[in-house]
């Protein structure tokens, strides 16, 4: 079994976008620079969307241009349309991440577009990137279930994966938007896409809404997925999906995978220091467990006995 896995950090986009308060630009840059030293394979820096739509990310250009890039780390951004793509390309991003939903209802609520309309827009965005060398990834929301429609037929997921690859998408993130996934479903869907499209790069994105986030990561890894999104401290959640709590926590995922014998290349101590700093930045506790409890074999000065 291939034990090398790659973790992609999404807190500075997915997490910050729904925080109550704006995180200052300089603080965002400092946090990303610290995260670049942890061994993460990729960092989703920001989103080049309208400042009116997401005021917390209105400083996208300043953040992207202000970070110190580290060799071996890919810096990706979310792009909602052609204008956002042009802004991102001007900042020399490594990757553009497009987002669509597998569900009509969620797509209309989140993006004001059906999956069919999203595919049309994707073609226009991809055309703008021709010759730039930028990697094109597409995140497929509600892959494992829609909060409005329930289960999304698996044949629909596979159809959309095929169509995304046909229009020039190179990587696809399978997103559990509201934490509806279960390990058996994750392993089944992930095995199918990996076997059917071995040339594509697949990432899995899970939420811990129903307490199954870490189990789903392990199920994806068992199926052969090598790349996983995670959010520092477990920050984030979809503002257009009822009940969607935070993403799986980066430090919790890294700690668990390390114990399972996987190599993620992560320095968990630096990651925990960054998570501690994050709490001060956002002004509240974050859901991550390792930050509270410590690593499994962390020594304490006083014995703690729970019965």
Please give the share of residues in helix. Answer: 25-40%
The computed structural class is: alpha/beta
Report Rg. Answer: 18 Å
Spatial order of the strands forming the largest sheet: 1-2-3-4-5-6-7-8
Which characteristics define this entry?
307 residues; 8 strands; 8-stranded parallel β-barrel; 14% strand; single chain; alpha/beta; globular
Notes on the structure:
Helix 2 (25-35) packs across helix 3 (60-66). The chain is globular. The protein is 39% helix and 14% strand. Helix 4 (82-90) links the parallel strand 3 and strand 4. The longest helix has 15 residues, at 268-282. With 307 residues, it is α/β, with parallel strands linked by helices.
Briefly summarize what is shown.
It contains 12 helices and 8 strands. With 307 residues, the chain is an alpha/beta fold.
Secondary-structure blueprint:
Layout: E1 6-9, H1 11-15, H2 25-35, E2 42-47, H3 60-66, E3 74-78, H4 82-90, E4 95-101, H5 104-110, H6 115-128, E5 135-141, H7 154-166, E6 171-175, H8 183-196, E7 201-205, H9 213-223, E8 227-230, H10 250-259, H11 268-282, H12 290-293
Parallel strand pairs: 1-2, 1-8, 2-3, 3-4, 4-5, 5-6, 6-7, 7-8
Helix pairs in contact: 2-3, 2-11, 8-9, 10-11
């Amino acid at each position: 079994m291939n034990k090398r896995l790659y973790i992609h950090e999404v807190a500075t986009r997915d997490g910050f976008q729904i925080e109550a308060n704006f995180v200052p630009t300089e603080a965002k840059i400092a946090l990303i620079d610290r995260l670049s030293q942890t061994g993460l394979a990729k960092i989703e820096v920001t989103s080049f969307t309208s400042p009116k739509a997401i005021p917390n990310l209105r400083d996208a250009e300043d953040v992207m241009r202000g970070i110190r890039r580290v060799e071996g780390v890919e810096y990706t951004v979310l792009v909602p349309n052609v204008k956002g793509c042009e802004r991102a390309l001007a900042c020399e991003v490594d990757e553009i991440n497009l987002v669509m939903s597998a569900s009509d209802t969620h797509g209309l609520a989140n993006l004001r577009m059906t999956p069919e309309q999203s595919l049309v827009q994707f073609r226009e965005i991809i055309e703008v990137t021709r010759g730039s060398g930028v990697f094109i990834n597409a995140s497929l929301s509600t892959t494992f279930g829609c909060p409005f429609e329930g289960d999304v037929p698996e044949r629909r997921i596979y159809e959309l994966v095929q169509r995304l690859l046909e229009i020039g998408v190179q990587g696809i993130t399978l997103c559990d938007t509201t934490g509806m996934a279960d390990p058996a479903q994750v392993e089944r869907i992930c095995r199918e896409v990996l076997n059917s499209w071995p040339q594509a790069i697949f990432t899995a994105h899970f939420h811990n809404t129903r307490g199954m986030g870490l189990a789903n990561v392990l199920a994806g890894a068992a199926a052969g997925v090598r790349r996983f999104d995670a959010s520092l401290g477990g920050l984030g959640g979809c503002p257009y999906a009822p009940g969607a709590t935070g993403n799986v926590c980066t430090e919790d995922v890294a700690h668990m995978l390390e114990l399972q014998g996987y190599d993620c290349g992560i320095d968990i101590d630096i990651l925990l220091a960054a998570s501690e700093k994050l709490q001060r930045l956002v002004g509240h506790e974050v859901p991550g467990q390792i930050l509270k409890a410590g690593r499994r074999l962390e020594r304490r000065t006083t014995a703690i006995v729970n019965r």
